[in-house]
Structures are given as C-alpha cells and as structure tokens.
Design goal:
By secondary structure, the chain is mainly α. The protein has one domain. The longest helix has 25 residues.
Length: 57
Amino acid sequence: MAVTAAKSVMAFRVLTMAVDLCRLTTRTMNVNAGHERTSKARIIHQIQLIRGITKWK
C-alpha cells in the first residue's frame, strides 16, 4: 500500500515538473527574470528529489 502511495506522489511530482518545464520553454510564465530563475531552481530541486527517491542501491 505504501509503495502505491509513493508511486502516486512521485507521478504527481513528475507531472507538475513537466508542466513547469513546458511553461518555461513556451514562455507563458512571467518574463520577470527573478521569477524565472527561482522557477528553474525549484525544478532542479524537484529533479534531485525524484532522483533520490528512485535511486537503486
């Protein structure tokens, strides 16, 4: 049960990250450089978290 919940959370994070990346590439976010910089930093942080969850030991 916990594995299914973890997979659902991870899938949601991946979907959110994909939407954020799409917005960055299509420039639908605010053109404010500070906002864009923090958005990219947040996406990088999300990728690092997902890598940590899916890392095989």
